[in-house]
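Changelog-adjacent note: as of this version, every example in the card shows the full chain rather than a window. The one below runs 252 residues end to end.
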Amino acid sequence: MRKLVLTLVFILSVSHPLLAKSVDKSLYKGLSKALATKVEANVVGAASKILSVDEDDLKALNALAIFYYESGKHGLAKIILDRAIKAHPEFTDLKNNLALVYFASGDKKLGLLTLKDAAGDSSLSEAALNLSSIYVEHRDYQKALGPLSKSFSKVKGSLKSKSKPAIALTNNYGVALFGAEKIKESLEVFTYAHEAGVKDSTLLYNYAMLLTHKGKNKEDAYKVINRLKFLTDDQKMLRKVELLEKTLDNKK
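Full-length structure tokens:
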């Protein structure tokens, strides 16, 4: 039932009075095209054009850091994010990204500290979502439940709009409740998401698993399993669903 959801933030637009230097929009379009090529020379060249106008441009620095993160060059990603954070300490998304770099490079302790700093008192930020995900992954369900409960009450209305952060948070909340042996509450969360029309295969698989092992009505579980079969063509997920269906078939 555990599912780790780590979200890398890409700041697409920034409006802040401290950003006094004006960068031509065409340069940002060039950066987007360069990122799509996934070629380092293209990305560095496009970012450099922006940074020659504004050496602390937030979008260019963050884009470079994300590129190096995804390329596995974590040392370079860290250097660039450190520079961006120094220039823009008010943007906590940068610290969220830095925390993910630490995790990717194996420094879990520093990653967790940085993520806690980025999350602050917020229960809806990307950092807060990532932090709760880590608590769930490490089965520290009680720590996860507080922030997840507050966040779920605020984002549950966004499930019908297919908001990915809302879906990820809802999945984590349902898993945390299950882990804390709050089965009734966990079922209520997953049922709410299902009735809202969520089509996320991970969330639906967790719901089907919960119904199979803890539900009172086998037909409810079969309905979710059949929906999963229709929604996904991922062979690994389909094999898991098949095993779940066999468990349900053998259940008295």
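Structural remarks: Confidence is low (pLDDT under 50) at residues 1-20.
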